[in-house]
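Figure 2 data, in text form.
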Amino acid sequence: TGTLTEGKPKITDVVAARGFSEDDPPNFTGSFYSRTKLWSDQILREFAEDSRRHLLVLRLRMPFDGSLHPRNLITKLRGYARVLDVSNSLTYLPDFLTATKTLIERGATGVWNIVNAGTISPFDIVVRYRELVDPGHRFERGMQAMNGEEALAFVRERYAFDDGDFQRARNQQE
């Protein structure tokens, strides 16, 4: 999965605007991936609106659980020497499965983004990991020398490299 929103509310005076809803249009189209995902979501929504069709697409964001699986967010983060300090939404996989079951039982259709309440940065996750699991764990706060649009495009790029997703993973670790 990827991101179609920038993940940060707009500030008016000193009060944050509401979060995103399922009906809000995406506000990030700074990469080829996000633009094609936007187009495909629009097509899927139109397809799902036809009452003769039953389409349910579930999206998750930065999935984690209690396992040591290599694709588990916490397993990935603990392997990075530098960790980005930008808040994001997360999906706890057991909650995702509960939500999936509920949506299927209710006959829901359309495209749904399933994330847990609140946000946290990968840096804060690793800080908590060090406090609770491994006090000797070493890492540093990753510095972002690019603007947000450049950084997202960089870590999401996979087609410009001969080794595709492997290079993308290395980019995300930097």
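Caption note: The two ends are 20 Å apart (CA to CA).
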